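I'm curious: can you give me some protein's one-letter sequence along with its backbone structure tokens because I've never seen that pairing?
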Amino acid sequence: MATQPTWIDHFPENFTWSNAMLVTKGMAPYGAVALEEIDRIAERLRLRPDDPDAWWQEWSAMAAKIEAFAGAAAAQGRQLTAGNYYIRAGNYYFTADRPVPPSERKLDLYRKALRCFHAGFERRYPRMERIDVAYENKALPAYFLPAQGVQGPAPTVVVFDGLDNCKEMSVLFAGLEFSRRGFNTLSIDGPGQGEALRLRGIHSRYDYEVAGTAAFDYIASRPDVDAARVAVMAYSFGGYYAPRIVAFEPRYAACVVLGTVAWDIHAKQLERKRLLDSDPKKTSQSPFQLPWVLGVKDMDAAIEAVKRFSLVDCASQIRCPLLITHGVNDRLAAPADAEKLRDAAGSKDKLVKLFTADEGGAEHCHVDNRQVGIDYVADWLTETLLGKTA
């Protein structure tokens, strides 16, 4: 008997689809998706379980439909309504893009996503700035969302993504709440992420502090930023990036890991390669993703490269306050990985918060209930950087 679908595992026989769908569902609290639209996509996908083109075709079809609604609303002068439609279309195009291997098709889907996100943000969040952060001989694309109701320089959170997410998601699910709490947010596609990877050819690197320093230098140059109160946050694979940054860039005043990565990334990727070779539907990761992010030829080369992606020798250098959040049902990394990072960190102020199924946020990066995770982070940042209760 086939397992019945649930909110968490929409496609019980296909964890790749279920995980990607849960990530997208988790954007609902931010007006970035409509669950009824997602449900219609899911019903069509159920009819095409073994079709390799089904995912991108169904998601992009819905995206095109919603984008057309946006255009009609804009033509009628209903700009805020159009903005909502555009943001949803952007999310659906990006979801369509995720499992598509690097190709013109992937770039076309991503450009459509970016076009819609920009059109939506301009209408719904006019104070949000699109900026470039100087990085070596290139630039990293980012959004700057200012704090609400703050006179003078404000504390700021720099948010990097994970392995297959984007700054557009981060500025919505994290930036909007941080802004309400009195924090600026710099949501940035770092090396190997989002626009930096797709349109600028910037691959990831083990010494991610180079990107972290570039982000801090930009933030510190702004008169609306209190440079003494800048935190860095990242999630999923960013659970390596953020701690690595603060281990080598001491100007950050705090660090947040929203959902840890495996403590031994090399061993975890070996395990994922075995799954990709034997039953790819049981893994969240597309076979091309890691090599593409790292800029190497294949999975074997990627697994060799991630040997350098380790916090073992540098976590003890972390001195700033450190918050690590993790879900007890996380299937991409174990709660023990969060505890290993906490134990290895040199910070005096360090905390692991484990979210249970009862309170919500028990899945990877709390995608089953992002609000509880982000609220906890925002409360901690307020108490840690501002010294007051949120």
